[in-house]
Amino acid sequence: MTLIMARECEICGKGPAMGNSLSQRGKPKYLGGNGRKTTGITRRQFKPNLQKIRINENGGTASRRVCVQCIRSGNVQKAIVRKPFTLPKSS
Q1: CA-to-CA distance for 71 and 49, rounded, in angstroms?
Q2: Where are the domains of the chain?
Q3: Distance (Å, rounded) from C-alpha 86 to C-alpha 84?
Q4: How high is the pLDDT of residue 87?
Q5: pLDDT tens digits for the chain (91 residues)?
Q6: Where are the alpha helices (DSSP H) in the chain?
Q7: Greatest Cα-to-Cα distance within the chain, rounded to the nearest angstrom
Q8: Would the pTM of this model clear 0.85, i.e. be above it?
Q9: Which string of b and e fits 30-57 if b means at least 16 CB within 10 Å?
Q10: Per-residue model confidence (pLDDT) at position 86
């Protein structure tokens, strides 16, 4: 049994990353101001862009929470969705 964490990609394991949020005042120098001044720094979370998609897995389909980076890079194969009210082609 695998433990599934919230906000984590089930393919690559990408999860939330920590960073800083800057509060600034003033006008930038290149716009004719005196320069930007940092008035506060607080911690924040960068959350991965997770999408719930159906993927091909072990000859069947499964619904997984996957980050967009895995989808775009081709790490997962999306399940083929057939048109409604059509029968599968028989060979």
Answers
A1: 11
A2: 17-73
A3: 6
A4: 80
A5: 556 678 999 999 999 999 999 999 999 999 999 999 999 999 999 999 999 999 988 888 899 999 999 999 999 999 888 778 878 777 6
A6: 68-73
A7: 74
A8: no
A9: eeeeeeeeeeeeeeeeeebebeebebee
A10: 79
In the structure encoding, which two tokens stand for residue 44, read together? 């924040």
DSSP state, residue 79: P
Tell me the three state secondary structure of residue 90: coil
- In DSSP notation, 3-63 reads ---TT--TTT----EEEEEEEEES--GGGTSS--EEEEEEEEEE---EEEEEEEETTEEEE
Tokens for 30, please give them: 């290149």
Q: In this structure, what DSSP letter does residue 8 have?
A: -
